[in-house]
Design goal:
single chain, 277 residues, alpha/beta, Rossmann fold, 2 domains, 7-stranded mixed β-sheet, 4-stranded mixed β-sheet, 8 helices, 13 strands
Length: 277
Amino acid sequence: MSKLVSKVWLGWTRADRSVDNAVRYANCFGGTRGLFFYFLSRIFRAYRGRLIETRVAGTDIRLLVRLGTSDVSVFNGIYCWREYDWEFQKPPRVIVDAGAYTGLSSVFFAMRYPESQIIAIEPSDSNFEVLVRNSERFKNIKPVHAALWVQPGWLTVADPGRGAWGLQVKENRDMTDHCSERLSDNSGQLVRAITLSDILRDYGINRIDLLKLDIEGSERELFSDYEHWIGQVDSIIMELHDRFRAGCSRSFFKAIDEFPIESWRGENVLVMRNSPA
């Protein structure tokens, strides 16, 4: 009997997951078109990763999304569930989007705050290529191929098994500033590490009005040494990743005593120095 119950439960779980994924595709590409792309990516492996254009509802903005990847879920989170659509006392003028992925969040910010300057930081080669294409229409988005880190240098991009959505960066102790073309022993992609102090200096920024962080566990290192830049940040949207790297929440919340306003939306927490409008 227990084996039968287990099989029924497994079948129901898989069916429920399939329905959820189909709905996400329909939200992303439109009903019939979305279902077509969902089944196409499920049945034919060759279509997974293929770039397909979709339109942001109510606008003429078109974005590229990769079939069979987490791009569809990211699109849903940003444009359907509005996970970054918070109210601020005044529109952010400078936004740093760290872990910008394929630019979906950066484009959302550019549409929501058209007068803002957006610095979109993404370490992955493949994600960055799509980010550049998705953001090319927006002159206020500056794509930066790098990883936000606690100190400058070089890092290795690693996939712990979650695909393009969950890529992490790790220290490569064999690298120096003079060997940027080398690969590490595991042949992982190398990427330049930059700090928030670098961003402030290189772009002539005095304050960061909004710092969005979705950096797959690197927040533990980033907030281990925060005193020299935290005073120049007014608001932070953060997705914490303790499930990937223990200590992320502890490191983050230790650093934000100066941010009295706290609000949660799904997996994201927003902390602010001042009350929203």
